[in-house]
Amino acid sequence: MSDYLSQDEIDSLLSGLSGDGEAAEGGSSDERYKALTPVFELFCKQASSVLGTAVAKTVDVTPETCAKADFAAAKEKLGADLISLTLSLEAGVEGDMYLLIDKKSAAVLADLMMMGTGAAPYSEECKDAISELFNQVMGAFSTAFGADIGESVSAGNVSVSDFDIANPPFDQDSADMGFAKLTVEGGMVNSAVALLIPNAFGDEIVEKKSPKPAASPMDMGIGISQSEMDELTTMASSSFSGGGGGSYASSPYVPPPPPPRTSTYDGPKENIDLLLDVELDINIELGKSELSIKRVLELAPGSIVELDKMAGEPVDLIVNNKVVAKGEVVVVDENFGIRIVSLVSPADRIKSLK
What we know:
By secondary structure, the chain is α+β, with helices and mostly antiparallel strands. The protein has nine helices and eleven strands.
């Protein structure tokens, strides 16, 4: 075996250290959807859970495909009578997504949330109910997505508007689109929805989801330094110059030890598990009333006190003096309880503090 490096071996070594190989470039489209698809699937999973709880029926949002936006395909799957829900993330990851859903399906979800039968037609009043529904969805999604990428992510308020698929607000080449199947128990809904992800927002998601490249030996101070590479090149060149016939013993290069590792993690160190056993006071408020001292003193068995709630109106579930949910009174094994019918949105919680 020769003690010298051949020219081919030197060329291969130089090429490998230069970092210009084609392997680092291709496959961007496949890699993009490998990153976007799990995020779309996570959104569908959270939507299924939250919507099912809010409307008290089994709701399935089943992801199908995630690819380049195609409005012709969207029109074929969803129809033309659509609304668009602007779904925003405001911290950790910033940007807007757009959920396209047909008005009939939106009306069913809105009516069920308002404790109806799901038969009410679509109207402008549906927008508030749908907005509240997907505020809850985005709250759950932002929490799950933040845990996935190891950062704190928060959602903004959802806005609803009509969507003209024949004249979309942006070019389909500037967005990706995920299709999902939406079904509600009892065949009340059996339709499709589409999630539009603009390229700029998609790029940020891909960056967050893509694994961070490992530091190369050169970056870590391990391997062949430039001066050593120059010496190696000079040494190999002289051995092939045809002169002197000098002989060099083959000796493996022993890299210096790596620098000691130091932690660079600066994220939050709190563990929510530490708080799970903390007990909270939970009260159910049927209603309130204001009475004068004289009226209170006149109370006797059989007296009626009128509350500020209408008959059939949901009661409030209060945690530490803050309303967090609304529900309807039920009887469970001869005990009173409530069945949660809706969660209070962050905006409503803030209003309750004023």
